[in-house]
Amino acid sequence: MGLSRILPRSQPLPEPLPAETAGEPEVAVPSALAPRLHAVPSSPVAGDPEEHALAKVIAFANQKGGVAKTTTTLNLGVALKEAGKRVLIIDLDPQGNLTMSQGMNPDVIERSMFDVLVHRVPISDVIHTVEVDIAVASIDLAGAELALSALIGRERALEKALIEVRDKYDYILLDTPPSLGLLTINAFVAADGVIVPVQCEYLSLRGLVQLENTLAMVRENLNPAVRVQGIVPTMYDGRTLHAREAIEILQENFGDLLFETRIKKTVRYAEAPVKGSSVLRYDPTGPAAQAYRDLAKEVLDGAQAREHA
After folding, report:
1. Distance (Å, rounded) from C-alpha 244 to C-alpha 101?
2. What is the pLDDT of residue 200?
3. Chunked in runs of 10, what are the mean pLDDT values of the chain (309 residues)?
4. 8 A C-beta contact, residue 186 and residue 113
5. Can you tell me the distance from the alpha carbon of 262 to that of 234, in angstroms, rounded to the nearest whole number?
6. How far apart are CA 72 and CA 296, in angstroms?
7. Contact 49, 191 (CB under 8 A)
């Protein structure tokens, strides 16, 4: 089945970008999309932070909710730390799921990423150390897009905030909201690359064109370097024909960008956050934890390959 059968017309970029670029882009089809995505280095990884002594900033994005974006941000971050890397994860989602996944309540947090983005509080003031360092979200973050919209340079608020800490980490992972609004745009402007978790089902593939169109506009106006650097298949159940066909579609259209690791369906990913834990701490020897160690190895192996290319 061709990808063009399931992909919709692209949508305009959210309001924060310049008005002259916010019109509806041309309809994107796989033959046009795949070459654009494959213009990045062939390895679907984040690059080597040690080349420039600054953290590699990776945004995890998909405007569709329920694709294991927060799960991937947390567990990949913990796996990278296990591998000896200095890791900061940042909760940019007003739902605060990443914050809750580390045992903190967004409703009672006093200072959060809202204060960093809107009031220019130093990001170090909102970093807590749990399994990894985490810059937390609070309930106030729901009002961040409205508050930011009145500020000059609103799309670069996060980029500026990260200057303080980029030399203190190897990887900074950004958990974005399930939308393409101003918080996500901030993440794209600050990021070196984007990893896209995609649920292995038919309808979840529809947002990939819209996401790439948004990134194309960000490249044109705000961050020329940002690219999709990897696609992570999540909630994979290899027993079903539907999931296997979804993987085939991804391989046909995005080949080199697709990570080999498949994040399989398991109740462990739902159980761990209830305990305020990553799955690597909750069930360290189980297959769910091993999947994210495998993904981390892909990231690190690819970074090493880039270093010696």
Report:
1. 30
2. 83
3. 42 44 37 39 45 85 91 98 98 97 95 97 98 97 94 96 98 96 97 93 76 93 94 90 89 90 94 96 97 96 60
4. no
5. 6
6. 10
7. no
- pTM for the whole structure: 0.83
Write down the pLDDT at residue 254.
86
Q: What is the pLDDT of residue 121?
A: 98
Please name the residue that has the structure tokens 């990887």: 171
Question: 120: which DSSP letter?
Answer: -
- In the chain, what is the greatest distance between 2 CA atoms, to the nearest angstrom? 53
φ and ψ at 87, to 5 degrees? -130, 135
Which domains are present in the chain? 49-300 (3.40.50.300)
What pLDDT does residue 304 have?
Answer: 57
DSSP readout, 18-55?
-GGG-SPPPPP-HHHHHHHHTTS-SS-S---GGGTTSP
Helix boundaries (H) for 28-140: 30-37, 69-82, 97-100, 113-119
Pairing of strands 127-129, 133-135: antiparallel
- Whether the CB-CB separation of 245 and 236 falls below 8 Å is answered with no
